[in-house]
Amino acid sequence: MTDTRAGSKFVARLKEAWRDLSTSARAAVGAAKPPHPDLPDADLPALRARMRDCLEGKGGEASARQRAVELGSLYLGLSTVGRKRFLGALARDFDIDRAAAARAAEAALGAWKSDDAKKRVAAEAALKSALDAPRAKLLQQFTALPEGVKFLVDRRAELLEWSREDAALAALEADLKDLLVAWFDLGFLELRRITWESPAALLEKLAAYEAVHAVRDWADLKNRLDSDRRYFAFFHPRMKLEPLIFVEVALVSGLAGDVQSLLDDKAPVGDPGAADTAIFYSISNAQKGLAGISFGGFLIKRVVATLQSEFPNLKTFATLSPVPGFRAWLDRRFAEGARGLLTREERATLAAAIKGEAGWLAGKGDLKRCLADDAWAANPALAAALEAPLTRLCASYLMGAKRADGRAADPVAHFHLSNGARLERINWRADMSGKGLRQSAGMMVNYLYRLADIEANHEAYAADGAVTAASAVRALAK
């Protein structure tokens, strides 16, 4: 099942939820001719009039709610072109009145020089009101509708894509993010354990939203929900059937070094009561429209507390994480003509592994050419020759590659280091799937969450991007 299919099912459910309200709305506010799906210029004046009616709240709160249903139903009937034009009209025609905001700012500056406290408070309130775009008030109206919060989350997912080259849509996206940040405060979130007995519709969504290790089939999903596994997700009270973010956990003995064994549905089920380690092997954000609104660190801490309560024998909490940026970083090094990626000893070992091979290996005497084809992974001699240099280069990438702000370039590393984890171990041949080979030459990483050190690790990383790592990883990076 795909994410697209999950989205289509939600739209069908949304239309069903709004159908009765939409019928009432047409009776209350008057039927209007629906626009063309592409929303041509001729249909824009009528759309703007509908938006103004929603903002003016004619007829009281119930009528305003019904008008919002009509407006949302209209949006769902538009094509991609029409949706962009709808949001563009909302962004541009219901923006801040900058002349009024300038006057309010001037009045506030004057009030701040005054000794009159009441005058200052009134001027500040007027300035704040002037800086609130009417479009934000219109967006707020959808939160009162059935499935309205999810409707807004999905609109932000669209805006994140469409606003890259449109300043007006970028401003609308920022308004919508501010609204969602308030609605998705951590205090509102509910942690739930997902089991095989959970509703089939929810299990289907988890399979669709899995972003790290694709769910192959129902047997694969059932294995991830077995007694030696745990599946937890955050939910919002206004999106009871929609997971926000979820984590998959394996209860094992010692650090897990490869994901194939964790996902093997034919492997014997372990005894969770005898486990000493909880491995977080997949964390997936389920809602694209909540990007940039962070729940992951809080989720991990909540799950750790829950597991400790259920299994007192658990002493170690760690991840088995992908390294999604490694191969792209290495390819950039190749493109830049970087020299000295391999030591003299590593070059000799690689040359010896290649010597005498036929077919695609012939003449591939350097690292770049060997990695150009994933077939290297199936050649034992070549894989053995590549282990030392690739593991070392991966350590260098994780320890040294930085973004412009000085934080870790790898997005998964940044996530876990931000949450106070330690870079514990790099695992060779840990994910031999096509995706794993393309992203990281098959390597995965254990990030260790040692509860006593989380705060200090987080502070060191937040202050200057310092990467806390085990001595073995630091030695590799040198």
Total strands: the figure is 8
Provide the low-confidence segments as ranges: none
Global geometry: globular
Number of helices: 21
Q: Tell me the fraction of residues in β-strands, as a range.
A: 5-15%
| Class by alpha and beta content | alpha+beta
Please give the alpha-carbon distance between the first and last residues: 44 Å
> How do the strands of the widest beta sheet line up side by side?
1-2-3-4-5
What number is the mean pLDDT?
90
What is the N-to-C succession of helices and strands? HHHHHHHHHEHHEEHEHEEHHHHHEHEHH
**Main sheet attributes: strand count, strand direction, barrel closure:** 5 strands, mixed
**Approximately how much helix is present in the residues?**
40-55%
**Rg, Cα atoms, Å:** 27 Å
Quick recap of the structure?
This protein has 478 residues and is α+β, with helices and mostly antiparallel strands. The protein is 53% helix and 9% strand.
Describe the structure.
- A five-stranded mixed sheet has the order 1-2-3-4-5, covered by helices on one side. Strands 6-8-7 form a three-stranded antiparallel sheet.
- Helix 1 packs across helix 10 (about 200-210) and helix 7 packs across helix 9 (about 165-185).
- Strand 4, helix 13 (about 295-310) and strand 5 (about 315-320) form a beta-alpha-beta unit.
- The chain contains 21 helices and eight strands.
- The mean pLDDT is about 90.
- It is of the alpha+beta class and about 475 residues long.
- The longest helix is centred in the first third of the chain and has 27 residues, at about 5-30.
